[in-house]
Amino acid sequence: MSITKGDKTIMDFNSINYVVEENIAIITINRPKFLNALNTEVLKELSDAVDIIAADTAVRAVIVTGAGEKAFVAGADIAEMQNKDVLEAREFSSLGNKIFSKLENLTKPVIAAVNGFALGGGCELAMACDIRIAGNKVKFGQPEVGLGIMTGFGGSQRLARLVGAGRAKELLFTGEMINAERANEIGLVNRVVDSSEVLEEAKRMAQMIASKAPLGVSFTKKAVNEGLNLDLERALSLEVELFGALFSTKDQTVGMTAFLEKRQAVFSGE
Ligand code: HXC
């Protein structure tokens, strides 16, 4: 069910909040008593929210955040995982992986607004987003080896791609938490702001992106994501294809005409 209040649309979920403000969708993981730990219900609701966003042409950017000031997400729910057998553990890992990949491949840009703990599955969720904005009191880490397990929502792969294999292995093998300054230094986050400013900063960035041509942004995301998995020659060909395709859009005409007429372009996403 959805309710519209002023310029906000609010969808009814149990463990996440979903709000669309103007053309920015905000997903808030909402289990603050458990530091927003990811259980099956959260994952399924996150999956549904991503599907809704994919189908909603009015949404131009997405923010993922956690409820409360203490945590973004302190990992997958350890109480739920504790008694899983091998098959169930594989299923849980596979479910999370599919949903995080769906989020990563969403055609709209996704910003993680991270405050407090971003551990295990929480760090993995932040890494499945395109951009990470961190509060100055954030703690990132992959503590799984201290629980007798390893990353299962893509951490071993995305962390190595983001910060390099050596730094990733240090974090993955030691389980050590790092602060905002270190996360910034190794490129795990895009920028650090005061804790009280994280969501506002994410909204500012989302609005800036939302004012640009949606297909230009979306094709750029595709070029970066798909290009990283191709050799350079193929990746450059992909860019050529996507660049050319944008010249069939209305927004290319709108953008270039507005520039030449010295006025601000208003893009429709067509
Ligand atoms: C379930 C959790 C949780 C988690 C915190 N809680 N993290 N419950 N799963 N990941 C619960 C606590 O049990 C506690 O519940 C409440 O949240 C508050 O947490 P405290 O531990 O009391 O807070 P504090 O002492 O401030 O310590 C904060 C913390 C610690 C350092 C973040 O909670 C912690 O280490 N959490 C676990 C972090 C972790 O190991 N994450 C990785 C999980 S494995 P009660 O009922 O006691 O109040 C993972 C794998 C992903 O993510 C891949 C899966 C396939």
Protein model, in words:
It is a single chain. With 270 residues, the protein is an alpha/beta fold. It has two domains: 2-210, Alpha-Beta Complex (2-enoyl-CoA Hydratase, Chain A, domain 1); 214-260, Lyase 2-enoyl-coa Hydratase, Chain  A, domain 2 (Orthogonal Bundle). The chain has eleven helices and twelve strands. The strands form two sheets. Strands 1-2-3-4-5-7-9-12 form an eight-stranded mixed beta sheet, sandwiched between helices. A four-stranded mixed beta sheet has the order 6-8-10-11. Strand 4 (24-29), helix 1 and strand 5 (61-66) form a beta-alpha-beta unit. The two termini are 29 Å apart. The mean pLDDT is 96. The structure holds hexanoyl-coenzyme A. Residues 34-35, 37, 74-79, 92-93, 96, 117, 119-121, 143-144, 147, 151-153 line the site of hexanoyl-coenzyme A. It holds the Pfam family ECH_1.
